[in-house]
Amino acid sequence: MNIDDRLAKVKYVSDEETHLKINQEKCNNCEMKVCTYICPANVYEWNKKENKLTVNYENCLECGACRIACSEKCLEWQYPKGICGVTYKFG
Length: 91
Prior knowledge:
- This protein is α+β, with helices and mostly antiparallel strands.
- The protein has one domain (3-86): Alpha-Beta Plaits, CATH 3.30.70.20.
- The protein is built from 4 helices and 6 strands; from the N terminus they run αββααββαββ.
- The strands form 3 sheets. Strands 1-6 form a two-stranded antiparallel ribbon.
- The chain is globular, with a radius of gyration of 14 Å.
- The mean pLDDT is 86.
C-alpha cells in the first residue's frame, strides 16, 4: 500500500488554532529546511517569495518527525486540544 492510500484512511478533526508554532527567525537561518521533506503529510512548505515557512497544520499526522528532524529547534509542537487531531482507521 502506498503512502497516498494510507493517508486516505486517516480522519482529522481540525482545531481552530495550530498546534505547530514556528520561530520564523530561527527557521530563516536553517539551510536544509528538513521539515519540508521529512513530513509524510506535506505540512511544511518553504515560501521563497516571502522567505518564510508556511504550516498547513490541518494535515498533521502527529508523527513527530518534524520536531525530531529540526536541527534549528525552531518548532514548538504540542498535541491538538480535546477531540481535535488525527484518528487512524485500520483495515
